[in-house]
Amino acid sequence: DFSYGTFFSGLSVSEVTFLQEVIFAYSIFKKIEGTAALTKFQARFDRFTDFSECIFETFVIIDYSIFEGEVNFTNAVFKSRFFVQKSAIRANFFIKKDNQEEPIFQDLVDFDIDPEEVTGKIIFENVGFYKIKEQHRHLLLEMAKDNKVEIGPGCIKYRLQTPNKKIDLAQDKQAIIIEFTQSFVNYFLRSSG
Length: 193
Prior knowledge:
By secondary structure, the protein is α/β, with parallel strands linked by helices. The chain has helices at 134-145, 174-192; strands at 6-8, 10-18, 22-23, 28-30, 38-45, 49-50, 55-56, 59-63, 66-67, 71-72, 77-78, 82-85, 88-89, 93-96, 109-112, 122-125, 149-151.
């Protein structure tokens, strides 16, 4: 049990097989200025693995790992880059946020995985899905069609925004504009929460 731990300048776990549950919940992976801060996992996790409520200030790389048990990143925060690559996911892999106070992804995310290596399900909820590198985001969207990925509520799959435009209107036109915008608000609240 590594819960409530503080890891300075990261952590490296390589060529290890965890036969029991691995708990990192509520841990902080601190970046120390002037150091190459990296948290890297290259291991096999046979049971439940818990990173809930962790704060990662360091780069995080999970590569060539095998997850046989459920993985939980609920309410974790990645303040730097996050990479999941060349790993096998055999059970549910949760990346979700219970609230929107602080986004889970604060930098670019790489999710470079082989769909054939996913026999479980990767579940995203309340995350800025658009923060995932474009080619990997498209791969995850394709995997969702095969029920290997679930993009749940609160995820922003696409981020397209037109530039703001200012339209000067006379006082007598304000009622129609308010009615028009209220219709859009009602539609979006009913259709996507």
